[in-house]
Every structure is written in structure tokens, then in C-alpha cells.
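The instructor's notes for this session suggest beginning with a concrete chain rather than abstract definitions. Hand out the sequence below and ask the class to guess, before any prediction is shown, which regions might be ordered.
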Amino acid sequence: MQSLTRVEALTRHRWLLGLSANAALGWWWADPLTGLFIAEVAAIEAVNTWRAESLADTCCA
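After discussion, reveal the predicted structure:
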């Protein structure tokens, strides 16, 4: 469960950072860049889950 919590914390932090930079500084590219980061984290977690030997090696054990 620790892995899932880490992923959630990373994505929520980056999402808030991207929206804040867009709103406060007018950086229109910050929000799409945040989306790419979240997609990368999701892809890494998917690959790790796919390659896991057992359920104990995933976030769901």
C-alpha cells in the first residue's frame, strides 16, 4: 500500500504545482507538462506491476 500512497502523493503534488504555476504565473505549458509527468508515473507503476512475481510485490498486497 505504500507504493500507491507514494504515487498518489506525487501526482497530487505535481497537479497542484502545475495548476498554481498556470494560474499565478501564466505558464500555460505547466499544466500539460504536469499531465505528462503523471502519465510517466502511471506507466512506470504499470510496468512494475506487470513484471511483479507475485501480488506481494505490487501495491495491492
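Then share the key points. The mean pLDDT is 80. The longest helix spans residues 2-25.
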